[in-house]
Amino acid sequence: MVRRAVFFWLGLGIFFGYQAELCRAGAEEGLAEKQFVCPFPERTGDVLSLTYAQILGDAVPVYGQPQDERAGVAPVRVTRPGFMWVSLSDPQPIMVDGQGWYKINEREYLRADKLRLAKPSNFQGVLVPRDFDRKFAWMIFHTRVSPGPGVPPVEEEDPAVVPARSLVIVHETREVEQRKWCRIGTGAWVPYSRLAMVIPALRPEEIGESERWIEVNLTEQTLSAYEGDRLVFATLVSSGDERFPTIKGLFRIWAKVRIGKMSGGEGDADRYYVEDVPWHMYFHQSYGLHTSYWHDFFGLPNSHGCVNLAPKDALWLFEWTRPKAASKGNWQEATKGDPGTWVWVHETPVAMGK
Predict the structure, then answer these.
(1) How far is 43 from 332, CA to CA, in rounded Å?
(2) 212-346: what CATH class?
(3) Average pLDDT over the chain, rounded to whole?
(4) What residues have CB less than 8 Å from 199, skipping those under 6 apart?
(5) Which helix (DSSP H) or strand (DSSP E) does residue 270 occupy?
(6) In this predicted model, what pLDDT tens digit does every residue of 180-233 receive, in sequence order?
(7) Domain limits of the chain?
């Protein structure tokens, strides 16, 4: 009964507490008129055109053709240790004498048992209606709700659990015994540390009142896109971890690359090489926003310094930001006539109060 009551009131708080216009992008049959944020319409299929795989193990031989291994022909090369991902010429393996092989480049084949196929994230951010100014958040972990701040969850056979990636309104925040709690519904409280919150930000004075800009909140691991002072889009990201922190400051996107490899790191432990990464938006030297097809840890730091995005979000931002991507060609730099979109990367104190 408690579980049902919690979710009855939580549902009211999310879907009927705030009047919001329908987003054109989400105006589909059956969409609630009072939804507080408007999800994108589901894109048909995967936005990624390639299949990817991680190379398992160090010093893996790459052969010119699948028959070479059994014939004793030397490999054309041996892979280096590190975090190595390749794109596959064909998502289906070639079978030779019962052994599967994948083609990774012209005259380059790897055994199928030396590869782990990627499972790119299906996560997607949200469009935000006009005049919506409430704090909202994604639940990062499956979380049992508590009846009050600082109160343990009710022990029962069927406890109320909010699933990870749930999108909730944060009605208020309180601190109890040096731990912050958020109310996400009537009688429903969760620890702040379980959330990634979107807090509408003030536009930096350098940015014009009609310009587009992006805010990356390293504390919350969220990204927000604005048109002037209006929040139009928000999502989860993965920034650099403690070893490889993301640079902070106010920047402009200086180049966009539709698809390209990424590599770096020093020594076997830190070396990485990832092929055919789509939708790069570089804002400071080699720091950029880009797709991450190799993990689904958005909402937590998990990069080598760049800002990782789920594929659908990276594509949306690539099309929304400036400079406008060239219809032909892979690389587009910003110009005086088409300056790059602003990117503000910062940390923020944990939000308190109502």
Answers:
(1) 26
(2) mainly beta
(3) 86
(4) 135, 217, 220, 348, 351
(5) helix 267-270
(6) 999 998 889 999 999 999 988 999 999 999 999 999 999 999 999 999 999 999
(7) 2-36+134-198, 51-117, 212-346
pTM of structure:
0.87
Q: Name the residue among 212, 130, 234, 143 with its Cα closest to residue 184.
A: 143
Handedness of CA 258, 307, 225, 207 (dihedral sign): negative
The CA distances from residue 80 to 51, 92, 101, 269, 287, in Å, are 21, 25, 19, 11, 24
How confident is the model over 271-312, as pLDDT tens digits? 999 999 999 999 999 999 999 999 999 999 999 999 999 999
What radius of gyration, in Å, describes the C-alpha atoms of the chain?
Answer: 23
Report the C-alpha gap between 161 and 301 in whole angstroms.
Answer: 24
User: In terms of Cα–Cα distance, which of 328, 330, 282 is closest to 305?
Assistant: 282
- Per DSSP, 204 falls in state P
Give Cβ neighbours of residue 126 (< 8 Å, ≥ 6 apart): 37, 38, 39, 40, 167, 233, 234, 235
Return the CATH architecture of domain 51-117. Roll (2.30)
Which is nearest to 115 in space by CA: 46, 48, 64, 57? Answer: 57
Query: How many CA atoms, within 13 angstroms, populate the side-chain half-sphere of residue 169?
Result: 21
Q: Report DSSP state, residue 79.
A: P
In terms of DSSP bridges, do strands 307-309 and 287-291 run parallel, antiparallel, or are they unpaired? parallel
DSSP 353: B
Residue 260 DSSP code: E
State which H helix or E strand residue 222 sits in: strand 222-227
Same fold? 51-117, 212-346: no
